[in-house]
Backbone:
């Protein structure tokens, strides 16, 4: 029986495609969600943060164009947690991607070592 993982991603992103490929190779069924067309709400982002244990700064796509255009590097320090959540929820391209979750665990970004550790495999490791 395969487990379902939701991946909030930007389809043209090669890192997102690699993450989906990795999860499928581990035996997961992947439900893909377009990060711009279905941007997570502030409430959903807070739930993802709570599950991940990450600091909100880790949710920002700091290498993205929108982040630079808005000059967020200098502004984030003075913003409240709720304002940061609202800002992320207002523009999908500000969110670091991909975000993978099964409702209990969350990973932000993609590194194969992290995926192996968190998602392991549905198959019995040989």
Residues:
């Amino acid at each position: 029986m395969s487990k379902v993982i939701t991946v909030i991603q930007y389809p043209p992103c090669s890192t997102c495609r690699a993450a989906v490929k990795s999860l499928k190779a581990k035996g997961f069924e992947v439900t893909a969600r377009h990060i711009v067309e279905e941007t997570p709400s502030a409430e959903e982002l807070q739930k993802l943060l709570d599950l991940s244990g990450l600091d909100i700064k880790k949710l920002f796509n700091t290498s993205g164009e929108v982040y630079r255009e808005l000059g967020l590097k200098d502004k984030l320090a003075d913003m409240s947690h709720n304002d940061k959540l609202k800002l992320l929820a207002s523009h999908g391209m500000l969110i670091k991607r991909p975000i993978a979750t099964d409702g209990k665990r969350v990973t932000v970004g993609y590194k194969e070592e992290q995926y192996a550790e968190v998602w392991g495999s549905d198959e019995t490791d040989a």
